[in-house]
Design goal:
Elements lengths: L4 E2 L2 H21 L6 E6 L3 H16 L3 E2 L8 E6 L4 H20 L4 E6 L5 H10 L5 E3 L7 H9 L5 E3 L6 E2 L12 E5 L1 E2 L10 H5 L3 E2 L2 H13 L4 E5 L16 H9 L6 E5 L8 H9 L6 E3 L7 H6 L6 H14 L4 E8 L6 H14 L3 E6 L17 H24 L5 E9 L6 E5 L5 E5 L8 E9 L4 E6 L1
Parallel strand pairs: 1-8, 2-3, 2-4, 4-5, 5-6, 6-7, 9-12, 12-13, 14-15, 15-16, 19-21
Antiparallel strand pairs: 10-11, 17-18, 17-20, 18-19, 20-21
Helix pairs in contact: 1-5, 8-9, 9-11, 12-13
The structure holds 5'-deoxyadenosine and iron/sulfur cluster (SF4).
Iron/sulfur cluster binds next to helix 6.
């Protein structure tokens, strides 16, 4: 664990001053209208949450927002490095920005986030996409105001890719994307070094926010009327390590559960190596914690789990699952699975299928292994052709699809508490949302129900979710 550093008051004051300066400079540059920003965050919820802080800073600097790149005066992409196809997509989208810069030479283009934290990516952007104005990594997101200031003062290209991590930035402005569901990071970084994963390299060492800061934010969200809070961390089960007054994840959950208000709480991601029975008991006894656990197994083969450096075997994993099902009868379960890890055989893959059948997950997030520069797995022999991996991948999807359908059938007749997200597919006349178990539930209703928590009696099951009728 690296030393925990909170940004000092003077660092913060410096950025606040830069925000004021930028606001003034933008007023001069755009005397007759408010300049507009377009932002997009790729990848995981942590990134989306970081994106809300970037929007907070932009708003503070005087920008309004648009969802049209073509009318933006500032475009910021918050990038993701977890798999190669995300990176390809981002390079493609950055390539498309060139024409907007041609049309509007004063457009400011910024790239930040996980991809930019990698030196080889920053180099490629510098060389192949010279019209990008700002490049900043995950550890420098809070420096956006000073970078904007330098750019507006005339510096052509501004970069901040400090290798320093361990920084926790509190009290930065935030502009949340929604008014009903909120992301709440409880920790940053990851120390696990799963051999396939780039996250520990781009998000730095694990560090936890102080519990009082988290509880303050929960109270604030509750008073603002948020109905669902998602606690975020790469490995929430190791929350609290390194704090001066140690608090573990279970204790934090109990304290959050005591906060007054009408909201429910989810969290992700749990790591099976640190997930405890005590945490499962806490969910079972709580008032606000949703009865859903996302517990990524990655593989059902002990040999592959060892190669992945996951620090658990299938016996330990299945023991946890069995305990959780016993303690929380209406529990729903989900997982992440990687197909085609280097050296994985069809036999290993079949062990994954076996485990998936044993656990009977409600839903899965499935990925084909993607080689990441700098990780241990990138050095391993990977003889299985992509076409074969795709075949295995499709087999997994079809096995899970049957299980999802079966799990949804079990919900028929039950009444679920649904937080409505908005209208379902056009032409259905239904609205859709998520149950406490995170299952998609649709029912006849109109858009005015968006953001409300309603009771729905389930009548019909599919492999994507369930349909029901509202109970008044
Ligand atoms: N290739 C494929 N999937 C990956 N994940 C992380 N790194 C890789 C990779 N290199 C998946 C894991 C993780 C999820 C967020 O992304 O399943 O749990
Ligand atoms: Fe990546 Fe493993 Fe850390 Fe998750 S726990 S972010 S998979 S290294």
């Amino acid at each position: 664990m690296s030393e925990r550093i909170e940004l000092t008051k003077s660092d913060l004051a410096q950025q606040e001053k830069c925000m004021e300066d930028v606001r003034r400079m933008l007023l001069e540059r755009y005397p007759n209208r408010q300049p507009l920003a377009f932002t997009h965050s790729y990848g995981c919820q942590q990134n989306v949450s970081d994106g809300e802080k970037i929007r907070g800073m932009l708003a503070e600097m005087g920008y309004g927002f648009t969802n049209q790149e073509s009318e933006a005066d500032c475009i910021i992409f918050n990038t993701c490095a977890v798999r190669e196809n995300a990176e390809f997509r981002i390079y493609g989208n950055v390539g498309n920005l060139k024409r907007y810069k041609k049309q509007n030479p004063s457009l400011i283009i910024g790239l930040c986030g996980c991809m930019m934290q990698q030196e080889h990516v920053a180099k490629k952007i510098r060389e192949s996409y010279p019209y990008v104005d700002l490049i900043f990594g995950t550890h420098a997101a809070h420096l956006l105001p000073s970078m904007m200031k330098k750019r507006l003062e005339g510096q052509k290209h501004v970069e901040e890719i400090t290798p320093q991590d361990g920084v926790i930035v509190e009290d930065m402005p935030i502009r949340r994307d929604g008014t009903v569901k909120a992301w709440l990071p409880i920790m940053y970084g990851c120390d696990n070094f799963c051999t396939y994963c780039v996250v520990p390299y781009v998000r730095g060492r694990e560090r936890s926010r102080r519990p009082e800061r988290i509880l303050d934010e929960v109270r604030q969200l509750a008073s603002q009327g948020y109905k669902e809070i998602m606690l975020l961390g790469q490995n929430v089960n190791s929350y609290g390590k390194g704090l001066e007054e140690p608090v573990d994840f279970t204790q934090l959950l109990r304290q959050i559960d005591e906060v007054e208000g009408d909201f429910r709480v989810r969290f992700m991601t749990s790591h099976p190596k640190d997930c405890t029975r005590e945490m499962i008991d806490t969910i079972a006894q709580s008032k606000k914690l949703c009865h859903h656990i996302h517990l990524p197994v990655q593989s059902g083969s002990d040999r592959i789990l060892r190669l992945m450096n996951r620090h658990y075997d299938t016996e330990k994993y299945l023991g946890l699952i069995e305990y959780a099902k016993e303690k929380i009868p209406d529990l729903t379960l989900s997982s992440d699975i990687i197909v085609g890890f280097p050296g994985e055989t069809y036999e290993d893959f079949c062990a994954t299928l076996d485990l998936v059948r044993k656990v009977e997950y409600d839903f899965l997030f499935t990925f084909i292994y993607s080689k990441r520069v700098g990780t241990k797995a990138a050095q391993m022999d990977d003889p299985v052709p992509a076409s074969e991996k795709s075949k295995w991948f499709r087999e997994l999807l079809s096995v899970q699809s049957e299980i999802s359908q079966k799990r949804c059938e079990k919900l028929i007749g039950s009444v679920q508490q649904v937080l409505v997200d908005g209208p379902a597919r056009e032409g259905t006349g239904r609205v859709g949302g998520k149950s406490g178990g995170n299952i998609t539930v649709e029912f006849p209703g109109d858009a005015s129900l968006t953001g409300q928590m309603v009771h729905v009696r389930i009548t019909e099951a599919h492999n994507w979710g369930v349909i029901g009728e509202r109970q008044e």
